[in-house]
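FAQ: What does the model actually see?

It sees only this:
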Amino acid sequence: MALRLVLAVLAPALAAAGAPALGINYGQVADNLPPPQAAAVLLRALNATRVKLYDADSRVLSAFAGSGADFTVGLPDRLVPRLAADPSAASAWVRANILPHLPATSITAVTVGNEVLTGTDTAMLRSLLPAMEALHAALAACNLTSRVAVTTAHSLAVLSSSFPPSAAAFRRDVLPYMSPLLGFLAKTGAPFLINAYPYFAYKADPGRVDLSYVLFEPNAGVSDAATGLRYDNMLHAQVDAVRAAICRANYGKAVEIRVSETGWPSQGDEDEAGATPENAARYNGNLMRLVAQGKGTPAAPGEPMQVYVFALFNEDQKPGPASERHYGLFKPDGTPAYDVGVKAPTISGWKGNGSRSDNGTGGGTGLVVAQGPGGADGVGPGTGYYTVSAAANKVKRRRWCVESLLVAAVVAMASGLSWS
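And it is asked to produce this:
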């Protein structure tokens, strides 16, 4: 289904009682993004009330004060060993990045690092759980553990195999770190986050992987002989593979699974099969419809999936193949990357540094902003490159960058753009 048609029915469906909220990853690895106030306009148009950041950018969090959006913020990889070695660093990070924004901005989770367990840095692997424990203790000292969960996101590469789903298990080299981490999640009630991209399976073997199967469209489906369950889309099979691996590690009933990243690129290199605007619209549109309907996976039909779509904007400074820079629902100027059918107010008139290109006299958004300070993590200006994770890639790439400048707070917003 075209995304244009899906979004026509998304708003009332998502607003219905008990309907799961749509999540959006708000990445900022670019030098041409609009300020967060403009991003708020687009998120409101999408009816997205859950936002995931890859840092704890104070400018974004301040801009969303009073919006009603729930934020997941990230503690960057480079700080993980520091928190593991010095618990006082966790307290300092909470004081600098969490406390100033509560309760005006809702922060519901912190991800410690990103895909750490599929990296090759043994010091990082050993530091992950101690860093998570230190951060949880720092939040407990502020009586925030009932409000803010501590977790971390994983690539599907933590699995030794993913099909059939019932046979999935964590890799042997990962299991010594994963088992105690699952224990921590079960004890604290935090979710297990997985970055899952059916696109990579299609890209790797377009001749054998059914495009309809990965795009949530009618197809013959595949069956898991051990369970008798039938799968009509790959994302459900990937999530149930993670579920089986967790159950095999004896934590299945106590840990919720959330899809922290999934999406489809609208453009790619010549050898990146399927990276087209049409396929991106079909994948994200059908995914959003699935979320709005509150459907669970075949192994857990009564548990609606919580999903974060990757991503809000195309990000021009991401390394790797062209697809990495084209996962956005929107271009940096706020126009749709493909036909999303969202009638959001224009956000044109913004320069990449967050200032107006029309001397504040045009643009039609009604937004007036103040330039904010740099720095996002209470320690320094850099956080890290966060590229889309391919399950086939067993070695996680280290990513470093300086985030694009944004602004600190809304001075005034047009009443028509307020969040309900």
